[in-house]
Design a protein that fits this description.
mainly alpha, 434 Repressor (Amino-terminal Domain), elongated
Length: 69
C-alpha cells in the first residue's frame, strides 16, 4: 500500500492539485484520497481504480501462478 500511496501523492502533486480538487475530478470523496495517501489497507477497489484511472492505470487481481512464471 505504501507504493500506491506514494504513487498517487506524487502524481497528484505533479498536476498541482489539492486533495480536494483531485477527489472532485476523480469522482470520489475526499476521504478516499486521504485513505489512499495515508496507505490505509481497507480501500474499495472500485474507488481506487477511479483514482488510478486519472493516470491511465488500474489495479486488478493477479493469479499467483503468473507471479512465479
Amino acid at each position: 500500500m505504501k507504493r500506491l500511496a506514494e504513487f498517487v501523492k506524487e502524481r497528484r502533486r505533479e498536476v498541482n492539485l489539492t486533495q480536494e480538487e483531485f477527489a472532485e475530478r476523480a469522482g470520489v470523496a475526499l476521504t478516499v484520497i486521504r485513505k489512499i495517501e495515508q496507505g490505509k489497507t481497507n480501500l474499495n477497489m472500485d474507488k481506487v481504480n477511479l483514482v488510478l484511472n486519472m493516470f491511465g492505470h488500474k489495479l486488478a487481481p493477479v493469479n499467483s501462478k503468473e507471479l512465479v512464471e
